[in-house]
Structure formats: C-alpha cells, structure tokens
Amino acid sequence: MQHFIDVILPIPLEKLFTYSVSQEAAKVLQKGMRVAVPFGKSKIYTALVYEIHTDPPKVYDAKDIHEVIDALPLVTPLQIDHWQWMAHYYMCTLGEVFRTAVPGAFLLESETFVLKNKNILPDESLLDDAEFLVLEALEHQESLKISDVSAILDKKTVLPMLNRMLGKKYILLKETLHEQYKPKQLRTVRLHDQFRSEGALSALLEELSRAPKQREVLLHLFQLQATAQKPISASELQTRSGASSGVIKSLVEKGILQEQMRTIDRIIYDGEATSTNKFQLSNFQEACLQQLKLSLTTKQVTLLHGITSSGKTEVYIKLIEEYLKEEKQVLYLLPEIALTTQLIERLQAYFGEKVAVFHSKYSQNERVEVWNNVLQNESKAQIVIGARSSLFLPFTKLGLVIIDEEHENSFKQYDPAPRYHARDAAIVLATLHKAKVILGSATPSLESFYNVQKGKYGYGFMDQRYGGVQLPEIELVDIKEASRKKRMNGHFSERLVKEISETLALKEQVILFQNRRGYAPIVECTTCGHAPQCPNCDVSLTYHQAKKQLRCHYCGYHMVLEEQCMACGSATLDTKGFGTEQIEQELLTLFPEAKVGRMDLDTTRGKYAYGKIIGAFAQKEFDILVGTQMVTKGLDFRHVNLVGIMNADSLLNFPDFRAHERSYQLLTQVSGRAGRTEKRGMVLVQTYNPFHSVLQQVVAGNYRAMYEEQMSQREQYHYPPTNKIIKISLKHKDYNSLNEAATWFGKALRNVFGAQILGPEFPPVARIRNQYIKQILVKIPRKQSLKQTKNSIKRIENSFNAISWYRSVRVIYDVDYF
C-alpha cells in the first residue's frame, strides 16, 4: 500500500501539499518532524509533517520526499494547533506562521550548484565571454555555487545568464540542502588514564623536570581539576598557566594529555541563585498575591493593575516559585528587548540557570539551543523570558504565562504575516496548555480593563509604591506662553532648565523623553521652501547630524546632506522639528559639565547595546539619558529624580483612534521612572495645551476617568473594544491601478456590510518602498459572527483575484488592527 504525507511548507500557500513516502518512512515519521521536499521545478524546502495517510492527491501526482531530517518531532501537536488558530484568526496561511514560528536555522535551505553537462560539447566560437569563463572554471572543479559564478564574472546578477546556458544544455543545476545550525564545540583536555596512579604521576613529573613549561601546565591542570566540577577547556588551561598553545599541543602529541571535543550551550549562566526566601513581600504585596491566587482558581486570565514601582515583579517571582514546585514551565513575555536586560539579572538572582532568554538579538544558533532546551523540558529552560517571538517555543508543561506591560503596542507584529498580537495569542496558547495567565500593567489597555468590567478576567490592584515611596509630582509647563514671552532656550523651557540644574547639583539623574529619533524630521530651504523627500516613500528625509546624513525611517534610503538646496542652490537650509540627537546637542551646550547618553534605535543596534546603556546609566556613568519610548517601559533606575517630556502634543495629535489612550499610558509610564527611592520625584511635561483632558488625567493619575472618556468615544464611533476591526491594505506600484482596484474592493465590501466599512482611503504615509497603499477598515459589532465576516471578506477577495488586471494588487489583512 502506498503511503502519503501532508506537509506544511514555509511559503504562503492556502492548502497543505501531499508527498509520497515509502512504507518504511511512513512507520518512522511523526507529526511535527521535518522532511526535505522538492517544490516547483528545482527548489527544495524544509517542510513539516502534518499527517500520514494512504489517500493520494486527486489534482496532481504526488512527488517523493527528498529525505527525512529529524529522528524526533521538532514541533509539538499543541504548537501546530496554536499555529492553525493563528492562521485562521489573523487571516494568513499556515506556512507563513510556520516560517515565523521556528528559528531560521531549522529551515534548511537548498543551495544551487552549477555542473557541466558532460554529454554536450559546446562550440567555443559560439560562446560569449561569460559563458566561456564559467565553462572554463568547470573544467577545473566539479561544481560551482551561484556565489562562485558571481565572483568569477564580477557581477551580482548571474541567474539570467545561467538560465540561457541551461537552455542551451551547456550546464546542469543541482539543489542540495545545507544545515544552518552549528553546535558550539569546546576543546577540553584531561590527563591520560595511564598517568592517574600516584607512581606513574610522580615518574612523569620527574621526567618533565627538563621541560619546565610542560611541567607547569600539568601542575595548573591539577589545580583546576581540584576546584572545578566541569571539564577543563584548553583555552582556560592556556590562560591560567601562561603557556603557549604549542606547549599543550606537545603534551597531547606525547600522549600525556587527551583532547576531547564537547558540545556546549552558547548561553551559560555561571552565577548562583540566591534563596528566594531572602526577600519578603510587603503587606500590600502579600495581599495582592493572595488576591491573584484566589482569582486564578476561577478565572484563566487575571489582570494585575499596579501603579509604577509598586513591586509587581516580586509578586510575579513568588507566583513563579509556586509553579516551578509543580514542575511547570513559565513564559514571561515582555514588549521590548530593553526590558529583558534588567529583568534577567533579577530572575537569575532568584532562580539561577533555570532562566532562558529568547529574542531577536540572539543569534540563530543561540535560539536553536533555547528551542531544544524548552522542547526537552531541560532544567535550564524552566522559565523563558522573551519578546513576542518566545510564545512560539515548544512548551510541553506550560503552567503560567506572565505578560508584563500588557498594554504595549510592541506586542503587535505588523510585518510580515502573521500580523498577530502576542498578548492575545499567548492567552490562546495558555488555554491549549490549560495554563494560567497574568496580565500586568500600571496603565492597562482598554481591551483588558473592559474584559475585567465584563467579568471575563480576574482583577488585582496595587495602589501603593513599594517601601512607601510617593508617586512623583507631575507639572505641566505651558511652552506656548513661554515661546510668546521668548523664554525658551532652544527646546527647553526656563522651568525645565532650572530643574535639570538643581537635579545635577544634587548629583542625581535626569531622563528626557522625545518620541522621535534623529536630529530633525525636516530640512527645509528658507528661500524656496524645498524639503528633501525620500524617492521611495511619501515622507521627508530625517536629518541625522552624527553621520551628516538624510535618512528615511521607512525604507532605509539615505544620502549625504548637501550644503546647498537641491532645488534652488541657496545655502539657506534650516531644520524643522527636533529629535533625540538635537536634544542631546542642546544639553551639551546648556550643561557642558554633564555626561549625556542617548537611547534610541540608532544607539541600540548591537546585541549588547541595550545592556551597556542601561548598565552605564544605572552605574551613574551618565547624568542625563535622552531617549525615545524605550526609556519609558518598566526600567528601574534608583537615582533618577527628574523626568522631562519634551513635547507631549506630538503624542496627543497623532492620527489614530488610540492616540489619547497611548498618550496617557506613555506619559504615565515615563513619569514612573522618577523618584523610585525615598525622595519624591518630579516630572515636567512641556505642552502647548496644558488644559487637554488627557494631560489633566495624567497629572491626577486618574486611570478610571481616562477609561470612561475613551470608552464613551469608542462606543459612539464603533471602535474596539466594543467592536472588532479588520484593516485591509491594498498595495501596488501604480497609483491608478491601485485606485481602481481599491474602489472595486470597497464597493464589494459595502454591498455586504454597508455602513460598517470605512474607506478606501490613503493613510498618512501613502507610499512606502515605491508601493502605493490604500486602506479599508471593517468595523464588526460584538454580536456579529467574526468567522462569517472573515469568510465573506475572503469570498470577495476570491472574486477580486478572478479579475486579471487586479491580480497584481497585493491584499493584506490586519485583524484587531492596532
């Protein structure tokens, strides 16, 4: 009987593909194992086994698989169930979820090799120069990689030329898989067994008296073995003994030392865990912990609403401790990689090597090792801290999911598909594992608080700061009035300059928040008004003074800043607006003695960049830290007494229905970085509109007033959480084609859903990477079936794709648009 497997391919296909396997392979294959399969004319993909059966495909002939890659499943059945939910809910394909979910090193890639066709003898007089060079190179070696051909011809694009040679049958192409993950090998040394007896060892040391360096190496080896419980690496022995590698090599060649290669993890925690009993919860923390435990007995999800610096992390630690006693795994989700730096140190202090870290700054090899440790339920991966991608790890005994700063929009993935929200996807994951979820925030999202009000989620509240510390004093500074009276020093009000001076005089630290990186968003000619624009996107280029560059923050295009206007040749160039770089420059002028640091996307590109900046500021190497919203989230600095918000209006006036909610959250969070010890902190908010309701709510710390005001508006205009929203984006490089296609799609939707449709409209940035964009919003009332709505939208898309001139327009879905 012939056997077949359905596989998930890491490409955007709506359906699974079926391949033929032998009876022997069918016996060993399991759901979640990887196989290499041919797809298309010559490409080989890594696919995931979904089902083994005996039903041949009806539409096409099933090809044979290339090879079986795994001996054991790499992905658990629960993971695949979770992926299927994501694909259905977020309106994407299972293949797109598969590609996002697993580390890239698991997706073995096929590499194309060029071979000479020995059955054809080409006429050299008919060959062009490129063809001659390739065939000559194949005379000297059996095969060439595509990159080798590029190097020989000194060209980047060689595929068209190779395609011509393939058509003339001069060459053959062969696809082979190559493994991306390479285990880390450690070279260790040990004394040969024949010298382990006391007599043999004494004789050996006597014999080596004429080779003092070799004798010194052996003595150091004995010392290390006496103190270390682990194998001794050759590099460590070389460092401790001060000998050269040649000395150790000689000892190995003589048979005195034995070498061994050991596979080790790239991420190793060398410290020791301190007892978790060494810290005690305060009375209000203990009361909150008991409240959470009681809530979790009846509710799967509980919201912990604790003001900034109330000590939520200590409560989490006590909860984690209890789940570890039950031998359960814990997932601790954070919105930003920056937050993991401080939290890793705190959790490792309590739980030692049980803590694993997983996020995009880690290398592919490191992520593979964490994946394997979680899959095998190793002791070194009982607690996983990570950004949104860590929810895809293969948990087998997940007991608790903690989603800290749950309100953050960083939990939402915008590109590529799946465009998921990690908070919501993690709650579904916990449901599949029958695990519990804690959502933590000082400023909960309207969605989460709405679910509390409806009785869907449990609730815990912490209204005191740990240690009885007072909340900071928040003061609004009217820069409209200050500008009119000419009392601004650059972008600093007199009040802010005065407070910074006093804070620095007391040897305390300052955080300044400006939610825009670079020096200035616009460079404008004051003579003709020309401002350089990105050639690929509908945005002005941002000026970065450090590199004297104009950069596009959407596509990465950059150019050198010209000294004269590109339109009229005038040298009267001026900047409009300001970013973190300009604030940093102004501070160096205003406070030349102060040490100023900057934390934004430009300064945190490296793997350890976050940790270095945060560590340096915590150690008081900087007096003032200027940053974007990275500095607002959950960081704990003990010596910060002043926080300045440079311009609150840029947040409030953003064209988005969540702008006021996000402004309240961001301003409250950044305010919470001030005064986290005995002394009360100060927060100065510079604004042109100090009477704005959101700013007044921030000053009063009145979350309930903000919630009720925003909910009233959301209900009135049919926005979340009372309604669901699906954003449909249509993209095309031709403006007119896009307009026509978007109008058709919008009319078709309006015929089905009527007034629930907004658009199609161009977004604020209507062209990115030479693709024009039009957007349609579908508002779905809670009582309306979400599944049926999606099916209706998909049917309209199928009709849309059936029209040949619309087929090139790309349709993108963003469910629960944020």
Key phrases:
7 domains, GIY-YIG endonuclease, alpha/beta, single chain, 6-stranded parallel sheet, 818 residues
Question: How would you explain this protein's 3D organization?
Answer:
- The protein is α/β, with parallel strands linked by helices and 818 residues long.
- It has seven domains: 3-108, GIY-YIG endonuclease (3-Layer(aba) Sandwich), CATH 3.40.1440.60; 110-178; 193-255, no CATH class; 276-466, P-loop containing nucleotide triphosphate hydrolases (Rossmann fold); 473-517 and 579-712, P-loop containing nucleotide triphosphate hydrolases (Rossmann fold); 520-577, no CATH class; 723-815, 2-Layer Sandwich (Alpha-Beta Plaits).
- It has 26 helices and 36 strands.
- Strands 14-15-13-16-17-12-18 form a seven-stranded parallel β-sheet, with helices on both faces.
- A hairpin with an 8-residue loop joins strand 1 (3-8) and strand 2.
- Helix 2 (77-89) crosses helix 15 (422-433) and helix 8 crosses helix 9 (234-241).
- The radius of gyration is 31 Å and the shape is globular.
- The model has no long low-confidence stretch (mean pLDDT 87).
Summarize it.
The chain has 818 residues and is an alpha/beta fold. Helices cover 36% and strands 23% of the residues.
